[in-house]
C-alpha cells in the first residue's frame, strides 16, 4: 500500500492528469495534489497520484552525505 | 538521476554499516521501531538487519494499513459487496485480508459478488460513470498517504454530479497510533515493548510533513527520524537515531529531505481537511480502539458516505485466537513467535493480516527473513 516510486513527468494532460515514465514504462496518473508541475520534474507516485515533487538538489546533497558517512566508518577522511 | 538505484549502492551501505558499528555503545541496546510497512519490507528485502550490530534491533510497527484493518470492517465490506446493486471497488491488497471465520473479499467475489480491483481512485470514478444503473462503493483504506486521493475522488464525484457513488471510509492517522503504542492501557495484557526511537514514515510524511512528530518527540522523549524507503536511506536514518540516543537527544530529524518538508503537501492537506473530520475513535487490529485515530466524511458530504447511505452497522469480531498479529503489529512479538507462522499461515493461505500485504511483518519475514533464520540455526 505505502510503496511508492519515483517517476519522471513526460507530458501534462487536461483535468489534472499527466503521463509519467518509470524506467521507460509510461503511466497515466493524477497530478491533482501538486501545483506548478513541469515536464522533466520527478514525482513520487502512489496509488495513481503524484504525492510530492522530488527536490534534485536535496537528493544530490543526501547522496554526498551518504558517501561521507560511509567513509567515516572506514577511518577514511572524506 | 533516477532517485532509486543511486540509493541502493552496496559499497556505501557496507561503509554505513561500519560507521554504525563504530558509533554504537556495545554496553547498551538500541531498539528502534520502524512504524511503516514499507520500511519493514525494505529491511527484510535488503537484509539490513544482517548489517547491523547485534545490539541494534529493529522492531516492526503497525504501519501497514492492510494489517491494521480489523476483521469487522472486512465483514462489513463483504456484506456491502453481496448486495446485488453494488459494485465494490478495492485496492488489490485487500482481497485476501481475513474477516471472521475465514471470510475474505476474494471468496465473496468467487461466490458472485461484484468486487473490482482498482489501482487508483480515478478508476473507481470511471466505473461509476460507466455503470449509472449500479451503486459504486469505494473501499477506502490507508494512512495519510492514501487519504488525499480519496478526497480528490469525492471532489471529482461532486464535480461530475455522480449520484451512484460513495465511499466506505477506513482512513487512519499515524501520530495517534505511535502515541498509542507508547501509552495505551489496552495493550498491557500483551505486554509493552521498549523503544528507544522511531524511524518515521516516508510517504505519509510527504503529505503531513515533519511538524506533527515534534510534539510526540518532546512529550515522550523519543527521537524520530523520517526516512526514505531505499536501503541507504534506512541505514542513514538508523545512524542518525544512534547518534541521537548517544547524545541523549530526542528531536525530529528529516533524512528524506528530497521529498519531505516540515509542512508537507499543503494542497493535499487542504483537500483532506475540506472533506474529512476525526472520528472519536477507530478500532485497529492489534491496538484496539484508538482515540481520534480515524477519519470519516463531514456531514456536508454524507451523501458520499457508504456507512450512512446503506445504513451499515458496525461489526466487531475477534481475531483467530491462535494468531499473534496483534502482538506482532506492536513489536511485542516476532513473526516466528506465532505458532501459525509458516505452517497454516503463509502468503497463499493467510490466517492473519500481517501475512497478507507484502509490507506485513509476517509476509516480509516469510519472503526474505526465514532464510536468515535457517542460516542462523545452522551457524549455531
From TrEMBL, chain A:
One molecular function GO term is: iron ion binding
Q: Which Gene3D superfamilies match?
A: 2.30.30.140
One Pfam annotation reads HupF_HypC
Q: Name one GO biological process term.
A: protein maturation
Q: What does this protein do?
A: Involved in the maturation of [NiFe] hydrogenases. Involved in the biosynthesis of the Fe(CN)(2)CO cofactor.
UniProt xrefs under NCBIfam families: hypC_hupF
Family to which the UniProt record says this protein belongs: Belongs to the HupF/HypC family.
Q: What is this protein called?
A: Hydrogenase maturation factor HypC
Q: Which organism is it from?
A: Bradyrhizobium betae
TrEMBL record, chain B:
Is the Iron keyword given for this protein?
A: yes
- Family per record: Belongs to the HypD family.
Q: Which Pfam families match?
A: HypD (PF01924)
One GO biological process this protein is involved in is:
protein maturation
Q: State the organism named in the record.
A: Bradyrhizobium betae
Query: Which UniProt keywords are present, listed alphabetically?
Result: Iron, Metal-binding
Cytoplasm in keyword set: no
MF (Gene Ontology): 4 iron, 4 sulfur cluster binding; carbon monoxide binding; iron ion binding
Q: Which InterPro entries match?
A: Hyd_form_HypD, HypD_1, HypD_2_sf
Annotated protein name in UniProt? Hydrogenase maturation factor
Amino acid at each position: 500500500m505505502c510503496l511508492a516510486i519515483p517517476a519522471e513527468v513526460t507530458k501534462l494532460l487536461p483535468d489534472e492528469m499527466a503521463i509519467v515514465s518509470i524506467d521507460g514504462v509510461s503511466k497515466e496518473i493524477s497530478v491533482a495534489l501538486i501545483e506548478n508541475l513541469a515536464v522533466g520534474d520527478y514525482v513520487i507516485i502512489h496509488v495513481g497520484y503524484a504525492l510530492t515533487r522530488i527536490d534534485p538538489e536535496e537528493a544530490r546533497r543526501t547522496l554526498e552525505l551518504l558517501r561521507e558517512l560511509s567513509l567515516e566508518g572506514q577511518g577514511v577522511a572524506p | 538521476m533516477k532517485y532509486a538505484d543511486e540509493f541502493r549502492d552496496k559499497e556505501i551501505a557496507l561503509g554505513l554499516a561500519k560507521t554504525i558499528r563504530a558509533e554504537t555503545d556495545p554496553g547498551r541496546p538500541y531498539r528502534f521501531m520502524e512504524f511503516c510497512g514499507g520500511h519493514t519490507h525494505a529491511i527484510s528485502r535488503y537484509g539490513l538487519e544482517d548489517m547491523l550490530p547485534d545490539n541494534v534491533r529493529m522492531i516492526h510497527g503497525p504501519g501497514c494499513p492492510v494489517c491494521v484493518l480489523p476483521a469487522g470492517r472486512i465483514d462489513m465490506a463483504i456484506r456491502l459487496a453481496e448486495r446485488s446493486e453494488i459494485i465494490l471497488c478495492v485496492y488489490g491488497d485487500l482481497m485476501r485480508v481475513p474477516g471472521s471465520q475465514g471470510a475474505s473479499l476474494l471468496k465473496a467475489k468467487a461466490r458472485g459478488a461484484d468486487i473490482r480491483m482498482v489501482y487508483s481512485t480515478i478508476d473507481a470514478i470511471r466505473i461509476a460513470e460507466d455503470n449509472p444503473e449500479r451503486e459504486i462503493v469505494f473501499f477506502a483504506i490507508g494512512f495519510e498517504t492514501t487519504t488525499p486521493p480519496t478526497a480528490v475522488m469525492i471532489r471529482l464525484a461532486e464535480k461530475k454530479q455522480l449520484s451512484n457513488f460513495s465511499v466506505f471510509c477506513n482512513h487512519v492517522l499515524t501520530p495517534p497510533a505511535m502515541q498509542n503504542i507508547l501509552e495505551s492501557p489496552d495493550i498491557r495484557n500483551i505486554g509493552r515493548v521498549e523503544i528507544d526511537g522511531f524511524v518515521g514514515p516516508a510517504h505519509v510524511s510527504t503529505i503531513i510533513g515533519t511538524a506533527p512528530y515534534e510534539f510526540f518527540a518532546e512529550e515522550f522523549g523519543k527521537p524520530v527520524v523520517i526516512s526514505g524507503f531505499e536501503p541507504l536511506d534506512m541505514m542513514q536514518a538508523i545512524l542518525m537515531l544512534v547518534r541521537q540516543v548517544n547524545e541523549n537527544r530526542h528531536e525530529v530529524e528529516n533524512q528524506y529531505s528530497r521529498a519531505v518538508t516540515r509542512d508537507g503537501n499543503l494542497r493535499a492537506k487542504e483537500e483532506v481537511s475540506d472533506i474529512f473530520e476525526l472520528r472519536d475513535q477507530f478500532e485497529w487490529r492489534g491496538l484496539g480502539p484508538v482515540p481520534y485515530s480515524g477519519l470519516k466524511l463531514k456531514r456536508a458530504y454524507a451523501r458520499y458516505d457508504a456507512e450512512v447511505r446503506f445504513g451499515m452497522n458496525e461489526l466487531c469480531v475477534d481475531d483467530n485466537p491462535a494468531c499473534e498479529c496483534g502482538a506482532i503489529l506492536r513489536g511485542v512479538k516476532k513473526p516466528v513467535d506465532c505458532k501459525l507462522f509458516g505452517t497454516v499461515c503463509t502468503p497463499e493461505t493467510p490466517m492473519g493480516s500481517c501475512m497478507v500485504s507484502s509490507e506485513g511483518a509476517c509476509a516480509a519475514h516469510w519472503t526474505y527473513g526465514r532464510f536468515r533464520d535457517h542460516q542462523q540455526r545452522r551457524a549455531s
